[in-house]
Amino acid sequence: MAKKQPSLKTLAKGEQPTNLNDYLAEVADSELEARTVSMSAILARTVLEEVLSDRDCARIRGFRGVAVVVGVPSADWVEPIKNALHGFGSFPHMVARNGASRLQDRPETGNDDVGRYLCGNHNVGGVSNAPGRYLPSALVAGADIRIEISTPSNRAISEVIRQVTGRRPRRLPPRVATGLGFHDLCAAIRTHSTPAECVRRLNSMTHSRSLADPSLADVPHIRDLHGYEGPAQDWALKLVEDVQSWREGTLSWSQVDRAIVLASQPGLGKTSFARSVAKSLGVPLVPTSVANWFASTGGYINEIIKFVDGIFAQAAANGPSVLLLDELDGLPRRSNLGRNGDYWAPIIGHILLTLDSAVSGDAGKLIIIGATNYASSLDEALVRPGRLNRVIHLQPPNATAVAGILRQHLAGDLPGIDLSALATLGAGSTGAEITGWVKGARRAARVAGRQMIASDLMAEIAPPDRRSPEEILSTARHEASHACLSVILGVSEVSYVSIIPTGTTAGYMKARLLCSASPTRDELDAYVVTILAGRAADEHWGGVSAGSGGHPASDLGIATRTIASCHAALGLGGSLAMRATDEQAIDLVRTDATFRAVVERDLTRLYAQAQTHVAANAHVIDCVAHALAKSRIIDGQGLRRIINHAQSKAPNIGAPLLITGGNHA
After folding, report:
1. Does the predicted model carry a pTM greater than 0.90?
2. Which of 363, 486, 617, 625 is found 20 to 30 A from 331 (Cα to Cα)?
3. Which run of H or E residues covers position 643?
């Protein structure tokens, strides 16, 4: 039995309502609906009037088989714009799709109806938040009028407020509707409100809805960034110049190179780079990540797709904006999907289509920066031209860049101090590590109750080495063997060699290979010899330890992958057949016993060569090692000076080091 609804109170004349039931008694449901519909209709019609030219309106009213396609910012605009479009002319057939139906909202669905109506000389309209993805392909391809609705301009908002309240607002904040959806605008602009009240609501909603990063004040301009010299900074500076030209009307948005992927080891500042780009452009930063897509949903395909669409729609509503797509390697390559293909394929396909629309379209004015720690794991279709375009690899900062990063983070601390010596100790460290040094130095000064001094920073960059003298010398010989053979064999140009521990690494060398972009087998073999030289030195001066292996980036990991690639991917192993990509070659070592034996044979041969070279140059390597054990870091120029002195058997090697970091004992 249906529950009886309470009757509404009838108010006496002049009596004020005291609760919702009293108010509803005075305002009929039909009147409330009429007011809501009226606001929705006013907003939709005003926005359409702004984008439709007089010529377009005349063609639609002419009723001569005109195909009209309207792109809208997000799904909540589809239905209101569809209804408003009927007011501009007769549309016997109207297609409105927002992607809610996976079966119906597809380009191959509805083309027969489109063709039939247009052939009958009837107007056909299509409205969608992604016309190319959801509307019938025949309608999109044959559109006579194609318009894009983006965030309503202040002029349109002012007109809507005038029509709803009866007066125009005196002043509107710039881009007052940025980031707001259709229903947000309807909720903010109300009858019986003053224009000022409507503007206050709009402003409040804009701040609360915006995904923009509010903390860009501490980020330097892209031209003042250190550690990004090369392709990344060149791209960003050109982007700033092109966006300014677009603002001045001298360059179309389609000509702006506005999508890249940044790849590096963790901590090298990919997010900081994106923040700097956003600040330099004077636009919002909208950060998101693949992990967040799954953490914010139940993991179902339709939920993830809707969440991704929402992120892109919100970024487009804030456009122009920088959209940071972090952890892109969380999307697997389609060639490696295996049994999970049915789950991943539609997600990856949808993201590729979304990137197509975002990068090739003008409506959202998006600048997209992808970020990954594992560029080799990215799907090739993700980084092709027309989507994310290309991958730019970031390298650890050199001493000059470290000095610049230190000065930026130090701000007013250590004024007038020459940071070059400290920066040499920290060369090759990540931006995150450098930030940690400054924070640690400030903490030490604060605990001591004084201003920061240079020794505070020194203690953070190169803390006292707690290893035994024997272990320090062993590490120095290991790293010196890499560096010396790289120079002696002409394989690499060494920038510096260090035994300052970083993370799980006891020492490291930074060098630039001197071979061509397409190296020969002899060049690659020589490179592997220098990689295996560290292990050969361990064996020559005592005993082999586990320090050369255990990780894909270890000496053995790099040597194994290089030789495996020669045989499986590069055609440099006696076979023309390509069995795998460079990244996949290492998998064959694990799974194919015959292939593993071939790689092992070559590694054994090259290791024997490394042992020979280490034994022949033991005096030179030992001279470098003892100097390195004392100074902890030697730059390339100092390294070559020691080698030359040792080779000439000079009795006094001198002082070739850039800096002395103190004894290890």
Report:
1. no
2. 363
3. helix 636-647
